[in-house]
Write the structure tokens for this entry.
Amino acid sequence: MITIEVLVTQISGLQRQDLERWISNQWVRPDGRAGAYVFREIDVARVRLIRELRDEMQVNEEALPVVLSLLDQLYDQRRRMRELGDALRRAAPDEVRRTLARHLAELTGSE
Amino acid sequence: MEDPYKALGVARDASQDDIRLAYRNLAKQHHPDLNPGNAKAEERFKTVSAANELLSDPVKRGKFDRGEIDAAGQERAPQSSYRDYAEGEPGRRYGRSGPQSGGWSAEDIGDMFGSIFNTDPRPKAPVRGRDEHYSLTTDFLDAVNGATKRLTLPDGRILDVKIPPGTADGQVLRLRGQGGGGGNGSPDGDALIEIHVLAHGYFSRDGQDIRLDLPVTLSEAVLGGPVEVPTPGGPVRMRVPPHSDSGTELRLRGRGVPAHGDRTAGNLYATLRVALGKPDAALEEFLRNWKQERPADPRRAMEAGR
């Protein structure tokens, strides 16, 4: 839980005005409100990711919302997969899980 | 620790621009946030980042080139990447369904089990298409004799509606399969068409019978004679018997509504109405000198003053 002042000093090459624009674009959604934002760890990691996408991978800000939206969807799905896995681990008997794994392995057709 | 030049795939004498370019290309390929769950990519990205960290800084690069530091010498403590949060509970913050949502909704479960296990949790029963209601206005004679009318539906389809003979006002025709589309291979609904019949100038309908008031002249009424009577099927000649009067009802058998289905043709009833027109001098002269043998009072049945 850090403030915008601390965050800007922590991430090299990050301009405060860029970050404020990203917040108003809803790409980053910290707690609090303008002038008193509070960033959680995930917010900090997201700011770092956006900066890397823009500065190091040259995804310009026009394309960023598309990339972020696809990433958010990807992580939604991966979270779902994890939850499904957790639920299977808790609820499905060993036998069922082994059968499932066997079916999945056959599906891929890999050696 | 891999040689940083090899890691980036550049020569020892590569320019700073070459190094930056090489790093960008590799970062795009292997960035762990773009390859979640891919351990190889993550490993590769760490190596590439470390190499870039070293070579992108001319001071550090010089130290490395001079052997003052080794490839791992400048490696920073790894930072948690976005992926470490995004996949877990904190990732809900940027999830599609909003930060609050926790458990799976029925749709989520249907999604997962429908696509992964290929069982639809709620198989849909076949649903017959909806019946659609329309109305169609038709002439009196078209309804009596039958006709085909063209009806343009709101969705642009054109229906040729066969109005059977003897169709009555308010009757509903059902056109099978012309209503709303059915789902899951079930039959389409029907088009229900309510028929409105316009009034006619002189015909009126009484079940299967047709009635009309037929104007006749004074001499046709008194002396009788042939007159032409309009019927739904076209004009027909009929004899007016002598000594007819206003109100006399004459029947033309089978000249009403034509036979249809299991119903036989109705009759046409013509009620005579004596039409004097403008009397001429001869008639006036005759009536002035006319001495009735038995004077009649047509108003006798009416009680005076009531």
Summary: Residues 1-60 of chain A form one domain. Residues 64-91 of chain A form the longest helix (28 residues). Chain A has two domains: 1-60, 62-111.
